[in-house]
Write a sequence for this structure.
């Protein structure tokens, strides 16, 4: 990674940039804070250039790719906290931290509510109802969320599944059939392992529901249904609780839709699972 300060680097290389490269540089200068949350597709659209131009711009500054450039930009902006929240002072007391965390959580939920399409939830729930098996996948921190979502659905149906790391997910994907569905959790929607797994899933004719933040993420091209979460996450704050809250909010809406559409079966299943778990409590 280039160790120079992003703005110093941009100033020193500005005269060497192409006309389209300068257009990107000018946009970043004017919209520094917002730009750190944009996908490469979104930044290209805002600048009126091709994605390849953004990539060449990053390489001209000495970065290996877009994500490395975005991290450097975020470091230069020095905003480690969630978007829209007041920056915390080092001496802030715990009561202030509680207020801050509450504001961030509410912002994540409200932001998600504003971008979540009810019709997409309905379409996703229909896929779940018709599926032979539903696999809840994710990678890294998103895999933990996928497991949480699987556990929630597992109380009402045995057709929900999960898998281990990306290797095990690839194995599961290779054995899927058209009646299967994958619910994939990926905030960025643009990881290599995710794309590889989804290509195998689609190659077998199975359906894909993608839960992500970016409507223009590469993974959306392989999804039958896209569910959006609205929490913004800085490149310096990966795995933030706010983003997790946003993802789980979407998942809870999907669970509610699924169970309400299958009220009788869901009620019987929850009665049985609750009865089975009761002896395990002290």
């Amino acid at each position: 990674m280039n160790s120079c300060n992003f703005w110093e680097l941009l100033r020193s290389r500005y005269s060497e940039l192409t006309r389209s490269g300068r257009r990107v540089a000018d946009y970043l200068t004017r919209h520094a804070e917002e730009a750190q949350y944009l996908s490469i597709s979104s930044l290209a659209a805002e600048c009126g250039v091709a994605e390849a131009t953004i990539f060449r711009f990053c390489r001209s500054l000495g970065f290996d790719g877009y994500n490395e450039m975005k991290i450097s930009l975020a470091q230069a902006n020095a905003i480690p906290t969630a978007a829209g929240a007041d920056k915390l002072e080092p001496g802030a007391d715990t009561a202030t931290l509680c207020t801050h965390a509450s504001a961030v959580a509410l912002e994540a939920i409200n932001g998600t509510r504003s971008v979540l399409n009810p019709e997409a939830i309905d379409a996703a729930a229909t896929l779940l109802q018709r599926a032979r098996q539903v696999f809840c996948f994710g990678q890294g921190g998103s895999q933990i969320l996928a497991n949480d979502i699987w556990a929630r659905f597992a109380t009402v149906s045995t057709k929900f599944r999960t898998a281990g790391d990306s290797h095990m997910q690839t194995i599961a994907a290779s054995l899927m059939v058209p009646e299967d569905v994958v619910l994939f959790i990926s905030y960025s929607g643009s990881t290599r392992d995710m794309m590889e797994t989804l290509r195998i899933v689609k190659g077998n004719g199975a359906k894909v529901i993608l839960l992500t933040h970016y409507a223009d993420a590469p993974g959306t091209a392989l999804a039958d249904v896209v569910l959006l979460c609205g929490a913004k996450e800085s490149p310096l704050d990966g795995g933030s609780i706010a983003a997790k809250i946003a993802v789980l909010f979407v998942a809870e809406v999907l669970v509610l839709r699924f169970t309400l559409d299958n009220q009788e079966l869901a009620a019987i299943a929850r009665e049985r699972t609750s009865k089975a778990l009761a002896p395990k409590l002290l």
Observations:
- The chain has a mean pLDDT of 90.
- The longest strand covers residues 207-212.
- Residues 174 and 203 are 9 Å apart (CA to CA).
